Amino acid sequence: MSRFGGKPPMGRDRVRLSTTEKQAAVAAAKDQKPEFDNDKLLNLLRSAKSELQGMRLIHMHLSLLRDKDPSSQMIVRTIIQELASKASYLQSFNISNGDVIILYKGLKLTGVTDVCQKVEQIFLAKTTLTGANPYKEFSLYSIMELALNFINVIRFIEELQANETGDHSNETKPPITLEEMAKLERSMQMFDLSPFLFNQAIANIGRNAEEDMAYFELYISIKLLQERLCPDYDITANKWLFNYFTANLDQSVLRALNHGLSFMRGRRIGININLSTVISTGFVKFDERLPLDFRGQVVLEISKGDLIENLSLFNEVVEFAQDRRYQIAVDGLNPFWVTNFDLEYLNADYAKIFWSNDMLEMDPTFEKYFMERIQEQDRCKFILARCDSVSSLVYAHKVGITMVQGRAVDNILRKGVSVREAIAHAKVA
Protein backbone atom coordinates (compact mmCIF):
# COMPACT_ATOMS: atom_id res chain seq x y z
CA MET A 1 0.00 0.00 0.00
CA SER A 2 1.39 3.42 -0.87
CA ARG A 3 2.27 5.88 1.89
CA PHE A 4 2.71 9.36 0.52
CA GLY A 5 2.09 11.15 3.83
CA GLY A 6 -0.09 13.69 2.07
CA LYS A 7 2.41 14.50 -0.73
CA PRO A 8 2.73 13.20 -4.30
CA PRO A 9 5.60 10.70 -4.75
CA MET A 10 8.95 12.10 -5.80
CA GLY A 11 10.24 11.37 -9.28
CA ARG A 12 6.85 10.51 -10.83
CA ASP A 13 4.78 12.40 -13.35
CA ARG A 14 1.47 13.63 -12.06
CA VAL A 15 -1.46 11.52 -13.18
CA ARG A 16 -4.37 13.39 -14.70
CA LEU A 17 -7.85 12.33 -15.68
CA SER A 18 -8.37 11.86 -19.38
CA THR A 19 -10.77 14.29 -21.03
CA THR A 20 -13.38 11.56 -21.37
CA GLU A 21 -13.14 10.59 -17.67
CA LYS A 22 -13.35 14.21 -16.53
CA GLN A 23 -16.35 14.96 -18.74
CA ALA A 24 -18.15 11.84 -17.54
CA ALA A 25 -17.55 12.71 -13.89
CA VAL A 26 -18.61 16.36 -14.25
CA ALA A 27 -21.72 15.43 -16.23
CA ALA A 28 -22.73 12.82 -13.69
CA ALA A 29 -22.17 15.30 -10.85
CA LYS A 30 -24.46 17.83 -12.53
CA ASP A 31 -27.19 15.36 -13.41
CA GLN A 32 -27.36 13.60 -10.09
CA LYS A 33 -26.72 14.78 -6.57
CA PRO A 34 -24.98 11.86 -4.78
CA GLU A 35 -27.16 10.05 -2.30
CA PHE A 36 -25.49 8.93 0.88
CA ASP A 37 -25.40 5.17 1.26
CA ASN A 38 -24.55 4.75 4.98
CA ASP A 39 -27.76 2.88 5.80
CA LYS A 40 -27.65 0.81 2.64
CA LEU A 41 -24.08 -0.35 3.40
CA LEU A 42 -24.85 -1.06 7.06
CA ASN A 43 -27.91 -3.13 6.16
CA LEU A 44 -25.93 -5.09 3.58
CA LEU A 45 -23.11 -5.85 6.00
CA ARG A 46 -25.45 -6.88 8.81
CA SER A 47 -27.80 -9.01 6.73
CA ALA A 48 -25.38 -10.75 4.39
CA LYS A 49 -22.54 -11.78 6.71
CA SER A 50 -22.50 -15.35 5.38
CA GLU A 51 -22.11 -14.09 1.81
CA LEU A 52 -19.16 -11.80 2.54
CA GLN A 53 -16.47 -14.47 2.64
CA GLY A 54 -13.81 -13.76 0.04
CA MET A 55 -14.97 -10.17 -0.38
CA ARG A 56 -12.57 -7.26 -0.21
CA LEU A 57 -13.16 -3.60 0.51
CA ILE A 58 -11.65 -0.36 -0.77
CA HIS A 59 -12.07 2.68 1.47
CA MET A 60 -11.28 6.00 -0.23
CA HIS A 61 -10.73 8.59 2.52
CA LEU A 62 -11.77 11.67 0.55
CA SER A 63 -12.84 13.43 3.75
CA LEU A 64 -9.14 13.77 4.64
CA LEU A 65 -8.35 15.95 1.62
CA ARG A 66 -7.39 19.46 2.73
CA ASP A 67 -9.09 21.12 -0.27
CA LYS A 68 -12.47 19.48 -0.84
CA ASP A 69 -13.83 18.92 -4.35
CA PRO A 70 -17.66 18.62 -4.53
CA SER A 71 -17.36 16.15 -7.41
CA SER A 72 -14.68 13.96 -5.77
CA GLN A 73 -17.03 11.07 -4.96
CA MET A 74 -18.29 10.95 -8.53
CA ILE A 75 -14.73 11.14 -9.90
CA VAL A 76 -13.73 8.14 -7.78
CA ARG A 77 -16.76 6.09 -8.79
CA THR A 78 -16.13 6.89 -12.45
CA ILE A 79 -12.53 5.66 -12.28
CA ILE A 80 -13.43 2.58 -10.22
CA GLN A 81 -15.88 1.52 -12.94
CA GLU A 82 -12.94 0.34 -15.04
CA LEU A 83 -12.65 -2.53 -12.54
CA ALA A 84 -16.34 -3.46 -12.72
CA SER A 85 -16.12 -5.40 -15.99
CA LYS A 86 -13.44 -7.67 -14.52
CA ALA A 87 -15.05 -8.25 -11.12
CA SER A 88 -17.52 -10.99 -10.20
CA TYR A 89 -19.10 -8.40 -7.86
CA LEU A 90 -18.50 -4.67 -7.35
CA GLN A 91 -20.65 -2.07 -5.62
CA SER A 92 -19.79 1.50 -4.57
CA PHE A 93 -21.23 3.47 -1.64
CA ASN A 94 -21.11 7.25 -1.10
CA ILE A 95 -20.55 7.88 2.62
CA SER A 96 -21.96 11.01 4.22
CA ASN A 97 -18.58 12.38 5.32
CA GLY A 98 -17.41 12.42 1.69
CA ASP A 99 -15.65 9.03 1.60
CA VAL A 100 -16.35 6.26 -0.90
CA ILE A 101 -16.42 2.56 0.07
CA ILE A 102 -16.32 -0.16 -2.59
CA LEU A 103 -17.06 -3.84 -2.01
CA TYR A 104 -15.74 -6.28 -4.60
CA LYS A 105 -14.94 -9.91 -5.40
CA GLY A 106 -12.88 -11.63 -8.05
CA LEU A 107 -10.16 -9.05 -8.73
CA LYS A 108 -6.38 -9.37 -8.46
CA LEU A 109 -4.89 -7.20 -5.74
CA THR A 110 -2.27 -5.74 -8.10
CA GLY A 111 -4.93 -4.43 -10.50
CA VAL A 112 -6.95 -2.91 -7.67
CA THR A 113 -3.86 -1.29 -6.16
CA ASP A 114 -2.94 0.26 -9.52
CA VAL A 115 -6.36 1.89 -9.84
CA CYS A 116 -6.30 3.11 -6.22
CA GLN A 117 -2.85 4.61 -6.71
CA LYS A 118 -4.16 6.39 -9.81
CA VAL A 119 -6.95 7.95 -7.75
CA GLU A 120 -4.54 8.87 -4.97
CA GLN A 121 -2.10 10.57 -7.32
CA ILE A 122 -4.87 12.57 -9.01
CA PHE A 123 -6.03 14.11 -5.74
CA LEU A 124 -2.66 14.46 -4.00
CA ALA A 125 -1.26 16.26 -7.05
CA LYS A 126 -3.64 19.10 -6.15
CA THR A 127 -3.82 19.02 -2.35
CA THR A 128 -2.61 17.14 0.75
CA LEU A 129 -4.06 14.94 3.50
CA THR A 130 -5.06 16.45 6.84
CA GLY A 131 -3.86 13.42 8.80
CA ALA A 132 -4.01 9.64 9.20
CA ASN A 133 -7.07 7.68 8.10
CA PRO A 134 -9.27 5.71 10.55
CA TYR A 135 -6.95 2.70 10.17
CA LYS A 136 -3.94 4.81 11.28
CA GLU A 137 -2.38 4.91 7.80
CA PHE A 138 -1.20 8.01 5.94
CA SER A 139 -2.84 7.00 2.71
CA LEU A 140 -5.87 8.17 0.73
CA TYR A 141 -7.03 4.59 0.31
CA SER A 142 -7.20 1.33 2.25
CA ILE A 143 -7.65 -2.14 0.76
CA MET A 144 -8.64 -4.89 3.16
CA GLU A 145 -10.17 -8.33 3.61
CA LEU A 146 -13.72 -7.65 4.72
CA ALA A 147 -13.93 -10.78 6.89
CA LEU A 148 -10.98 -9.55 9.01
CA ASN A 149 -12.19 -5.94 9.27
CA PHE A 150 -15.96 -6.35 9.29
CA ILE A 151 -16.46 -4.91 12.77
CA ASN A 152 -14.09 -1.97 12.16
CA VAL A 153 -16.05 -0.88 9.07
CA ILE A 154 -19.40 -1.12 10.88
CA ARG A 155 -17.99 0.79 13.87
CA PHE A 156 -16.65 3.53 11.56
CA ILE A 157 -20.03 4.10 9.90
CA GLU A 158 -22.05 3.88 13.13
CA GLU A 159 -19.78 6.38 14.91
CA LEU A 160 -20.01 8.69 11.90
CA GLN A 161 -23.81 8.60 12.02
CA ALA A 162 -23.86 9.09 15.78
CA ASN A 163 -21.72 12.22 15.46
CA GLU A 164 -23.90 13.60 12.67
CA THR A 165 -27.19 13.04 14.50
CA GLY A 166 -25.91 13.98 17.96
CA ASP A 167 -26.69 10.46 19.19
CA HIS A 168 -23.75 9.83 21.52
CA SER A 169 -23.79 6.17 22.47
CA ASN A 170 -21.18 6.81 25.19
CA GLU A 171 -23.81 8.49 27.37
CA THR A 172 -24.54 6.51 30.53
CA LYS A 173 -27.41 4.06 30.14
CA PRO A 174 -29.36 2.51 33.01
CA PRO A 175 -28.44 -1.07 34.01
CA ILE A 176 -30.59 -3.69 32.37
CA THR A 177 -33.51 -4.92 34.48
CA LEU A 178 -34.77 -8.47 35.00
CA GLU A 179 -37.81 -7.70 32.85
CA GLU A 180 -35.68 -6.36 29.98
CA MET A 181 -33.28 -9.29 30.31
CA ALA A 182 -36.21 -11.69 29.90
CA LYS A 183 -37.25 -9.84 26.72
CA LEU A 184 -33.67 -9.97 25.46
CA GLU A 185 -33.46 -13.70 26.16
CA ARG A 186 -36.63 -14.36 24.15
CA SER A 187 -35.35 -12.23 21.28
CA MET A 188 -32.05 -14.11 21.12
CA GLN A 189 -33.84 -17.45 20.73
CA MET A 190 -35.33 -16.24 17.45
CA PHE A 191 -32.52 -13.95 16.30
CA ASP A 192 -29.89 -14.80 13.68
CA LEU A 193 -26.55 -14.12 15.37
CA SER A 194 -24.40 -14.74 12.29
CA PRO A 195 -24.05 -11.01 11.40
CA PHE A 196 -22.54 -10.44 14.86
CA LEU A 197 -20.14 -13.43 14.77
CA PHE A 198 -16.58 -12.38 13.97
CA ASN A 199 -13.17 -14.02 13.89
CA GLN A 200 -9.77 -12.59 14.77
CA ALA A 201 -6.41 -14.19 14.08
CA ILE A 202 -3.85 -15.21 16.68
CA ALA A 203 -0.54 -14.99 14.81
CA ASN A 204 2.62 -16.95 15.54
CA ILE A 205 5.77 -14.85 15.84
CA GLY A 206 8.07 -17.52 17.27
CA ARG A 207 11.01 -18.60 15.11
CA ASN A 208 10.18 -22.29 15.25
CA ALA A 209 6.43 -21.99 14.57
CA GLU A 210 5.34 -24.22 11.69
CA GLU A 211 2.30 -22.10 10.76
CA ASP A 212 1.74 -18.34 10.57
CA MET A 213 -1.62 -18.60 12.41
CA ALA A 214 -2.10 -20.39 15.72
CA TYR A 215 -5.90 -20.22 15.55
CA PHE A 216 -8.80 -17.84 14.92
CA GLU A 217 -10.91 -16.66 17.85
CA LEU A 218 -14.66 -16.65 17.14
CA TYR A 219 -16.59 -14.09 19.17
CA ILE A 220 -19.83 -12.17 19.33
CA SER A 221 -19.65 -8.37 19.41
CA ILE A 222 -21.68 -7.68 22.55
CA LYS A 223 -21.60 -3.94 21.82
CA LEU A 224 -23.23 -4.38 18.41
CA LEU A 225 -25.69 -6.94 19.77
CA GLN A 226 -26.71 -4.57 22.57
CA GLU A 227 -27.22 -1.71 20.10
CA ARG A 228 -29.46 -3.93 17.97
CA LEU A 229 -31.51 -5.77 20.61
CA CYS A 230 -31.29 -3.64 23.74
CA PRO A 231 -30.20 -0.08 22.86
CA ASP A 232 -31.69 1.65 25.92
CA TYR A 233 -29.93 -0.40 28.62
CA ASP A 234 -26.38 -1.32 29.64
CA ILE A 235 -26.05 -5.11 29.59
CA THR A 236 -22.67 -5.06 31.37
CA ALA A 237 -23.62 -2.86 34.35
CA ASN A 238 -25.04 -5.66 36.53
CA LYS A 239 -22.40 -8.39 36.91
CA TRP A 240 -24.86 -11.15 37.85
CA LEU A 241 -27.22 -10.40 34.97
CA PHE A 242 -24.29 -10.05 32.58
CA ASN A 243 -23.02 -13.50 33.55
CA TYR A 244 -26.53 -14.84 33.01
CA PHE A 245 -26.64 -13.11 29.62
CA THR A 246 -23.28 -14.53 28.48
CA ALA A 247 -24.39 -18.04 29.51
CA ASN A 248 -27.43 -17.69 27.24
CA LEU A 249 -25.26 -16.13 24.55
CA ASP A 250 -22.95 -19.18 24.68
CA GLN A 251 -25.92 -21.44 23.89
CA SER A 252 -26.93 -19.22 20.96
CA VAL A 253 -23.38 -19.30 19.58
CA LEU A 254 -23.23 -23.08 19.88
CA ARG A 255 -26.54 -23.38 18.02
CA ALA A 256 -25.19 -21.09 15.29
CA LEU A 257 -22.01 -23.15 14.98
CA ASN A 258 -24.04 -26.36 14.84
CA HIS A 259 -25.52 -25.12 11.58
CA GLY A 260 -22.10 -25.26 10.00
CA LEU A 261 -18.44 -24.37 10.39
CA SER A 262 -17.69 -24.43 6.68
CA PHE A 263 -16.68 -20.74 6.73
CA MET A 264 -13.77 -21.69 9.04
CA ARG A 265 -12.78 -24.86 7.18
CA GLY A 266 -9.08 -25.58 7.38
CA ARG A 267 -8.55 -23.28 10.37
CA ARG A 268 -8.15 -23.95 14.07
CA ILE A 269 -10.74 -21.99 16.05
CA GLY A 270 -11.17 -20.62 19.56
CA ILE A 271 -14.52 -20.09 21.32
CA ASN A 272 -15.14 -17.76 24.28
CA ILE A 273 -17.20 -19.84 26.66
CA ASN A 274 -18.33 -20.05 30.29
CA LEU A 275 -17.33 -23.08 32.37
CA SER A 276 -20.99 -23.81 33.11
CA THR A 277 -21.70 -23.95 29.37
CA VAL A 278 -19.10 -26.66 28.76
CA ILE A 279 -20.99 -29.06 31.04
CA SER A 280 -24.41 -28.16 29.60
CA THR A 281 -26.53 -30.28 27.24
CA GLY A 282 -26.10 -27.58 24.61
CA PHE A 283 -22.35 -28.19 24.53
CA VAL A 284 -22.87 -31.95 24.45
CA LYS A 285 -24.96 -31.49 21.29
CA PHE A 286 -22.29 -29.22 19.82
CA ASP A 287 -19.63 -31.81 20.60
CA GLU A 288 -21.66 -34.60 19.01
CA ARG A 289 -22.10 -32.59 15.79
CA LEU A 290 -18.52 -31.32 15.60
CA PRO A 291 -17.09 -32.30 12.17
CA LEU A 292 -14.28 -34.83 12.31
CA ASP A 293 -11.77 -32.44 10.77
CA PHE A 294 -12.38 -29.99 13.67
CA ARG A 295 -11.75 -32.63 16.35
CA GLY A 296 -8.59 -31.53 18.14
CA GLN A 297 -8.74 -28.12 16.42
CA VAL A 298 -10.96 -26.21 18.90
CA VAL A 299 -9.69 -24.05 21.77
CA LEU A 300 -12.04 -23.25 24.68
CA GLU A 301 -11.25 -19.76 26.00
CA ILE A 302 -12.10 -19.45 29.70
CA SER A 303 -11.95 -16.08 31.45
CA LYS A 304 -9.66 -15.65 34.45
CA GLY A 305 -12.59 -14.51 36.61
CA ASP A 306 -14.65 -17.59 35.77
CA LEU A 307 -11.67 -19.81 36.61
CA ILE A 308 -11.04 -18.17 39.99
CA GLU A 309 -14.69 -18.31 41.03
CA ASN A 310 -15.19 -21.92 39.85
CA LEU A 311 -11.84 -23.67 40.25
CA SER A 312 -13.30 -27.13 40.94
CA LEU A 313 -15.55 -26.82 37.88
CA PHE A 314 -12.52 -25.71 35.84
CA ASN A 315 -10.74 -28.94 36.80
CA GLU A 316 -13.76 -30.93 35.60
CA VAL A 317 -13.78 -29.04 32.32
CA VAL A 318 -10.05 -29.68 31.82
CA GLU A 319 -10.62 -33.41 32.30
CA PHE A 320 -13.51 -33.37 29.82
CA ALA A 321 -11.48 -31.29 27.33
CA GLN A 322 -8.56 -33.69 27.43
CA ASP A 323 -10.90 -36.63 26.86
CA ARG A 324 -12.63 -34.95 23.90
CA ARG A 325 -9.45 -33.36 22.46
CA TYR A 326 -10.23 -29.71 23.15
CA GLN A 327 -7.52 -27.29 24.24
CA ILE A 328 -7.89 -24.72 27.02
CA ALA A 329 -6.92 -21.04 26.99
CA VAL A 330 -7.05 -18.89 30.13
CA ASP A 331 -8.20 -15.43 29.02
CA GLY A 332 -7.81 -11.95 30.55
CA LEU A 333 -4.46 -12.19 32.36
CA ASN A 334 -1.97 -9.44 33.16
CA PRO A 335 1.67 -9.67 34.33
CA PHE A 336 0.61 -9.95 37.97
CA TRP A 337 -1.54 -13.02 37.30
CA VAL A 338 1.13 -14.60 35.10
CA THR A 339 3.56 -14.44 38.01
CA ASN A 340 1.01 -15.85 40.46
CA PHE A 341 -0.73 -18.56 38.42
CA ASP A 342 0.86 -21.97 37.93
CA LEU A 343 -0.51 -22.46 34.44
CA GLU A 344 1.24 -25.80 33.98
CA TYR A 345 -0.50 -27.10 37.09
CA LEU A 346 -3.84 -25.84 35.73
CA ASN A 347 -3.20 -27.80 32.50
CA ALA A 348 -3.79 -24.70 30.37
CA ASP A 349 -2.60 -24.94 26.78
CA TYR A 350 -2.69 -21.17 26.20
CA ALA A 351 -2.58 -18.09 28.42
CA LYS A 352 -3.85 -14.80 27.00
CA ILE A 353 -2.38 -11.57 28.42
CA PHE A 354 -4.13 -8.27 27.70
CA TRP A 355 -1.70 -5.63 26.44
CA SER A 356 -1.42 -2.35 28.32
CA ASN A 357 0.96 0.57 27.75
CA ASP A 358 1.74 0.28 31.47
CA MET A 359 3.78 -2.81 30.61
CA LEU A 360 6.38 -0.50 29.03
CA GLU A 361 6.84 1.16 32.44
CA MET A 362 7.19 -2.09 34.37
CA ASP A 363 9.71 -2.20 37.21
CA PRO A 364 12.89 -3.88 35.81
CA THR A 365 13.07 -6.40 38.65
CA PHE A 366 9.45 -7.42 38.26
CA GLU A 367 9.76 -7.51 34.46
CA LYS A 368 12.71 -9.89 34.76
CA TYR A 369 10.62 -12.17 36.99
CA PHE A 370 7.70 -11.87 34.54
CA MET A 371 9.94 -12.97 31.65
CA GLU A 372 11.33 -15.86 33.67
CA ARG A 373 7.82 -17.11 34.44
CA ILE A 374 7.00 -17.06 30.72
CA GLN A 375 10.12 -19.07 29.91
CA GLU A 376 9.41 -21.58 32.70
CA GLN A 377 6.07 -22.64 31.21
CA ASP A 378 7.05 -25.47 28.89
CA ARG A 379 3.61 -26.61 27.71
CA CYS A 380 1.50 -23.47 28.11
CA LYS A 381 1.89 -20.98 25.24
CA PHE A 382 1.44 -17.26 25.80
CA ILE A 383 -0.61 -14.85 23.67
CA LEU A 384 -0.36 -11.06 23.95
CA ALA A 385 -3.86 -9.87 23.05
CA ARG A 386 -5.41 -6.47 22.36
CA CYS A 387 -2.22 -5.35 20.61
CA ASP A 388 -3.05 -1.94 19.16
CA SER A 389 0.41 -0.75 18.14
CA VAL A 390 3.67 -2.00 16.67
CA SER A 391 5.35 -1.30 20.03
CA SER A 392 3.09 -3.91 21.66
CA LEU A 393 4.20 -6.49 19.07
CA VAL A 394 7.87 -5.63 19.59
CA TYR A 395 7.35 -5.96 23.35
CA ALA A 396 5.84 -9.44 22.93
CA HIS A 397 8.95 -10.49 20.99
CA LYS A 398 11.21 -8.92 23.63
CA VAL A 399 9.74 -10.84 26.58
CA GLY A 400 9.46 -14.17 24.74
CA ILE A 401 5.71 -14.25 24.01
CA THR A 402 5.30 -16.23 20.78
CA MET A 403 1.72 -15.29 19.75
CA VAL A 404 -0.04 -11.96 19.25
CA GLN A 405 -3.59 -10.77 18.58
CA GLY A 406 -5.30 -7.42 18.09
CA ARG A 407 -5.89 -4.50 15.74
CA ALA A 408 -2.18 -4.07 14.99
CA VAL A 409 -2.05 -7.70 13.85
CA ASP A 410 -5.21 -7.25 11.74
CA ASN A 411 -3.73 -4.19 10.02
CA ILE A 412 -0.52 -6.06 9.14
CA LEU A 413 -2.35 -9.14 7.81
CA ARG A 414 -4.68 -6.94 5.76
CA LYS A 415 -1.67 -5.72 3.80
CA GLY A 416 -0.53 -9.28 3.09
CA VAL A 417 2.59 -8.93 5.24
CA SER A 418 3.93 -11.53 7.67
CA VAL A 419 3.65 -10.38 11.30
CA ARG A 420 7.15 -11.78 11.94
CA GLU A 421 8.54 -9.67 9.08
CA ALA A 422 6.73 -6.56 10.34
CA ILE A 423 8.21 -6.98 13.82
CA ALA A 424 11.69 -7.60 12.42
CA HIS A 425 11.41 -4.44 10.29
CA ALA A 426 10.17 -2.40 13.27
CA LYS A 427 13.10 -3.57 15.40
CA VAL A 428 15.60 -2.54 12.74
CA ALA A 429 13.89 0.81 12.20
Write the layout of secondary structure elements.
Blueprint: H1 19-31, H2 38-47, E1 56-60, H3 72-84, E2 89-94, E3 100-105, H4 109-124, E4 141-145, H5 146-165, H6 178-190, E5 197-204, E6 213-220, H7 222-229, H8 239-258, E7 269-272, H9 275-278, H10 281-289, E8 298-303, H11 304-309, H12 311-324, E9 327-333, H13 335-340, E10 350-354, H14 364-376, E11 381-385, H15 390-399, E12 403-404, H16 407-414, H17 419-428
Parallel strand pairs: 6-7, 7-8, 8-9, 9-10, 10-11, 11-12
Antiparallel strand pairs: 1-3, 1-4, 2-3, 5-6, 5-12
Summarize the structure.
This is EAL domain-containing protein. Helices cover 45% and strands 16% of the residues. It is an alpha/beta fold.
Structure in words:
It comes from Azospirillum formosense. Residues 1-30 are annotated as: Disordered. The structure is a single chain. This protein is an alpha/beta fold and 429 residues long. It folds into 2 domains: 37-165, 2-Layer Sandwich (Alpha-Beta Plaits); 178-428, EAL domain (TIM Barrel), CATH 3.20.20.450. The protein is 45% helix and 16% strand. The chain contains 17 helices and 12 strands. The chain has helices at 19-31, 38-47, 72-84, 109-124, 146-165, 178-190, 222-229, 239-258, 275-278, 281-289, 304-309, 311-324, 335-340, 364-376, 390-399, 407-414, 419-428; strands at residues 56-60, 89-94, 100-105, 141-145, 197-204, 213-220, 269-272, 298-303, 327-333, 350-354, 381-385, 403-404. The strands form 2 sheets. An 8-stranded mixed barrel has the order 5-6-7-8-9-10-11-12. Strands 2-3-1-4 form a 4-stranded antiparallel beta sheet, with helices on both faces. Helix 3 packs antiparallel against helix 4 (109-124) and helix 6 (178-190) packs parallel to helix 8 (239-258). It is globular. The two termini are 19 Å apart. Mean pLDDT is 82; it is low at 1-15 and 29-34.
